[in-house]
Amino acid sequence: MTQSLWFFGARLNIVADHTTTGGKYDLIEGYFPPGSQTPPHRHTRYSEQLYVLEGEFTVWAGENKVVLSEGESFLIPIGTTHVVAALGNQPARGLVVAAPSAFARLIAAVGTLDETEPPDMELAERISAEIGDEILGPLGALPFADATNP
Length: 150
Description:
Elements: E1 3-7, E2 10-16, H1 18-21, E3 26-32, E4 41-43, E5 47-54, E6 56-61, E7 64-69, E8 73-76, E9 82-85, E10 92-99, H2 103-110, H3 121-131, E11 133-135
Antiparallel strand pairs: 1-2, 2-3, 3-10, 4-11, 5-8, 5-10, 6-7, 6-9
């Protein structure tokens, strides 16, 4: 039951969601084109575990900056403001486990089939509020003032 959608510049495949996991987690495979990143955000009701399959992800989580390579993993605890990015000229691909299940609901509601179609921000804000997500800035912004320093 894989569902594949564009979501804030990344191609996300919903591999498992509440319908197959009893609400315990979502499993998402993500492809980030070179230079793409999420807006600053936080999840107030679920954690997010990122595992790198290919390429490299830069993650700003709270006041920390980590660079993850293939085979590395990083836990973003509930309530942590964060940004995930594929910097440079190479794409990145990874797995995200969001537990308990909620993130896949947002992707399914707001994601688009066409990468050039912008997301419905009113719907994104409504669903985000329902699942406890907070979008804290625009695409390209970082989660804290001095985010360029590790």
